Fold this sequence. Notes:
It is built from 14 helices and 36 strands.
Amino acid sequence: MFVLNGLNPCIAHMKSFFCAIISLCMLPVCVSAQKIIIATDGVAIAYQPDAGKQLQQIYLGKKLSDSASYRNINASLDPAYATGGATYLNEPALQVKHADGNMSLVLNYVSYETKNESPNVVLTDIKLKDPAYPFYVTLHYKAYKTQNIIETWTTISHTEKADVVLNRYASAFINIKSPQNYLTHFYGEYNYEMQMHKFQLPPGIFSIQSKLGVRTACNYNPSFLVSPNNDATETSGEVFAGSLAYSGNFDIQFESLQLNIDMGNSLKIIPGINAYASSYSLKPNENFDTPHFIFTYSVAGEGQISRNFHNWAINYGIWNGHQKRQTLLNNWEATYFNFNQDTLVNLFDGAKKLGVDMFLLDDGWFANKYPRNDSRAGLGDWEANKKKLPGGIGYLVKEATAKGLNFGIWIEPEMVNPKSELYEKHPEWILKAPNRPEHLYRTQLVLDLTNPVVQDYVFGVIDNLMKESPAISYMKWDCNRSMDNAYSPYLGKNQDAMYVRYAAGYYKVLDRIRAKYPKLDMMLCASGGGRVEYGALKYFQEFWPSDNTYPEDRIKIQWGYSYFYPALTVCAHVTAAGSEPLKYKLDVAMSCKLGFDVMVKKMSEREIALSHTVTDNYRRLQDVINYGELYRLVSPYKTNFASLMYVDNAKRKAVVFAYNLESLEADTYPELKLNGLDPNKKYKVTEINLNTGARPQFRENGQVFSGETLMEQGLKWYLKSAKTSSVLELEEI
């Protein structure tokens, strides 16, 4: 476990020991001070004020049996929330300039309080104050007992005579006592999101950060895993993992200290808003809340970390987590911008043949003066194109409903083309720097969501569509560029916190949408996975992980997302991309949230029948795939194969997915040991997702095995050819 800081002896004859420590500039813990323990059923973090009233972190790790067990065994500095400008000389969590220009900050412990928000959720607030200034910080900790997740954030306020400038303001400050730490983070680019990288942190500072403004998770996802002392595996080892819930610029710093005289060998993790171009002038009596940081800990390896996050996300982290997901057919790859009303209505029949729940109309349906016939025009003019859709969106919704389909629609409400009526009418609504050439990306610009009038406009895009067609059940919210040359005409000379105020404006719009349309399904999209984080996901049911739909690439992309995001949030569509067989594409998509983006009229009857079979299987097994526990079995990062499985909570059913990526002559086939089953139960194993009359690839199809056998001995790897796949259904008998 992580043992952090030390608890000083409390017996009288040890006073001389305390004096020796003080002489070495160590800060002894105040024996009479109350220990503050934030705990779930299995994880705990503990704090205690020292003799100088500085709050120290004394423990992080497995929950102990009682409060007396949490002892400070190292007389070293592990501050709960380090401040800059005073005596702390490393990277701080909070750095300010007071109203009088003083750049130093000291935070003394004042008090704490705990309350039960529900039988499963406990909130702890720890109050801190600068002894010389009316400057206040509250550290919030929300413990989710059964999920073993702790959510933390910080509230900053003051009553000084003028504004206080916040130059840095992290969400948390986590201390890990370990001489070596292994970091797993997730990087990428458009079409190659969420690639995994694991390495040992060297002494110094490593940072995961974004300055992209809106598509903030495009290059780095604000999620990570840290293994202290030894590299953890999927099933064993200590792991601390965290994810920052924020849709703006972020910075997660990892400061590795070696042989530090005050802090020894330790790792400081500092997640929060990126300080780049984000000095925030905090007015007297104003409260500033930092983004929430969600973390967990496990001694059972990386797999348990994922199951903790998935359980929390379904119950607390995403919108309507327990709502059944809709399978869909998207028209994008079938038509792109080239369609009309009749074309779309004819596609509804294809959706029925596939057996999906919904038809999703993608880009190209709007704008009249500058019709949206390509990406260069129309963005911002959100009225149905009269030439393409003379009956409007309402007609399409009516026709879809008549065929037993729900209807969804694509929007990109934060963006604008210069070739649009909106741009002509409101050039002051655009983020663009004065005295700089206009820089277009994907021929578009970003609207200024710091401006309340623009917030009203963006809300109105969704509100007007829903008023005109209340039966719309789904919206795909896209965001296809990042910020550059970013300047807000609304903020004028006060540009310092523009990025922060944009994110706040974005959340205000989403708050209004969810207050008025709580049942509307929404997909989070940003040229793929550019906005995948829990700050936005609390408003969305699901996300589009990547525009890359090549099945072999998707296996790795979806594998990376699985560490922090449950399967029901990860939209996976069957498309024309890739040379793999249709079955392979279906099996890859079914392991997440199944959808289609295909030309049904070009499919054979046999392909349509298989697609319908898989859609039915997904719907039948959705409770297992979407709400069961995930076990990653064979990693595509370590082999030419991949396998994962889901097990329902009662351990009565399971679904196993297996893929061959490439098959080389020198390949050694992997072990396929299952996990998460009840060793004392018997399971019938049946291969599914087969064409009518097709022979199972799994030669022991239909046989019964004990859970113990499946987990201890496993199954023989039975896929021998490249680009082959299989799905097994396990059912207790």
